[in-house]
């Protein structure tokens, strides 16, 4: 089949989000606990409350909203936020890595005329930041993701501004992004419908790749897109996954359905990302050699 566009999930498809985020979060909590004289378990609960309120584990300004920071001078909150951000970033440098075969395969897709669209439920600007850190941002034509929560408007804003607008995980300029409201995220098919329109291709000319059959692949099946299950992205370090479970706002039912591994008709299985190179044909591969 001739494929002109690839709609690619980001977290646990291009890199292991669980094995990057969990140890980075633990490093942050460990650094903070020594400063605020609270147990790490108590800080976990305070972070969990903030994450539940915002509906995401990737709220950049969580430290500023912890109960332990209430009533502290702005300068002290700024110091704690910087300390937390530094600890998080130090761990991130060690643990944020592409899966084997991802970089070369993305280069192969792009160099052979395939339009690459990152399609993620994560905040769009964070997805862009991660892809840039992984040195693959420039390989993507578009990044489609969640518009995210609005920035705080109370006194926390003053504390945020003292950090130059940066949260724990940093910030980057926003370019070639499409930001969608929560109701348009996967498993809604609207994200993929928009991606096909942007790419200017028919569903049969596109592939969708992701680690969640229900979230990433079912909407592709509904539209007639060729779908590939990134099975390698479902392999978890138990300690890291337990850390995520302690923090997540997701219900048990949502966790169960998102990580349901019941194979559906039409789902192709990838044990590694680069196996894709053996399975699809791209526009440039169909051009004749010089002189033919």
Task: Report on the architecture of this protein.
With 292 residues, the protein is of the alpha/beta class. The protein has one domain: HAD superfamily/HAD-like (Rossmann fold, 3-Layer(aba) Sandwich). It contains ten helices and seven strands. The protein has helices at residues 17-36, 40-54, 74-95, 102-111, 124-133, 155-161, 190-199, 213-223, 238-247, 252-258; strands at residues 5-8, 115-123, 142-146, 177-180, 206-210, 226-230, 267-270. The protein has a seven-stranded parallel β-sheet, with helices on both faces. Strand 3, helix 6 and strand 4 (177-180) form a beta-alpha-beta unit. Helix 1 (17-36) packs antiparallel against helix 3 (74-95). The longest helix has 22 residues, at 74-95.
Beta-strand percent range:
5-15%
Which superfamily, in CATH terms, is the homologous superfamily? Answer: HAD superfamily/HAD-like
Q: Quickly name the level 1 CATH class.
A: Alpha Beta
Derived from helix and strand composition plus strand pairing, the structural class reads alpha/beta
CATH topology: Rossmann fold
Q: How would the global form be characterised?
A: elongated
- Mean pLDDT level: 88
Structure keywords:
292 residues; 7 strands; seven-stranded parallel beta sheet; elongated
How is this fold's topology laid out?
Blueprint: E1 5-8, H1 17-36, H2 40-54, H3 74-95, H4 102-111, E2 115-123, H5 124-133, E3 142-146, H6 155-161, E4 177-180, H7 190-199, E5 206-210, H8 213-223, E6 226-230, H9 238-247, H10 252-258, E7 267-270
Parallel strand pairs: 1-2, 1-5, 2-3, 3-4, 5-6, 6-7
Helix pairs in contact: 1-3, 1-9
């Amino acid at each position: 089949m001739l494929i002109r566009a690839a709609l690619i999930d980001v977290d646990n498809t291009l890199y292991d989000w669980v094995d990057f985020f969990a140890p980075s979060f633990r490093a942050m909590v460990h650094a903070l606990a020594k400063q605020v004289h609270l147990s790490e378990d108590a800080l976990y609960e305070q972070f969990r409350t903030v994450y539940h309120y915002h509906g995401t584990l990737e709220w950049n300004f969580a430290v500023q909203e912890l109960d332990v920071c209430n009533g502290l001078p702005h300068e002290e909150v700024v110091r704690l936020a910087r300390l937390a951000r530094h600890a998080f970033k130090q761990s991130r440098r060690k643990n944020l890595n592409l899966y084997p075969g991802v970089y070369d395969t993305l280069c192969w897709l792009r160099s052979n005329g395939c339009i690459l669209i990152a399609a993620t439920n994560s905040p769009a600007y964070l997805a862009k930041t991660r892809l840039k850190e992984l040195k693959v941002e420039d390989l993507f034509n578009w990044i489609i993701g969640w518009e995210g929560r609005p920035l705080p408007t109370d006194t926390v804003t003053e504390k945020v501004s003292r950090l130059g607008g940066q949260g724990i995980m940093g910030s980057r300029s926003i370019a070639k992004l499409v930001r969608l409201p929560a109701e348009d995220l996967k498993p809604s098919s609207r994200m993929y419908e928009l991606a096909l329109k942007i790419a200017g291709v028919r569903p049969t000319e596109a592939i969708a790749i992701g680690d969640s059959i229900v979230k990433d692949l079912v909407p592709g099946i509904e539209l007639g897109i060729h779908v590939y299950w990134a099975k390698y992205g479902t392999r978890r370090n138990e300690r890291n996954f337990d850390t995520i479970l302690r923090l997540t706002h997701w219900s048990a039912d949502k966790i169960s359905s998102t990580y349901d591994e019941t194979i559906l008709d039409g789902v192709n299985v990838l044990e590694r990302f680069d196996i894709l190179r053996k399975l699809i044909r791209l526009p440039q591969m169909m051009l004749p050699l010089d002189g033919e």
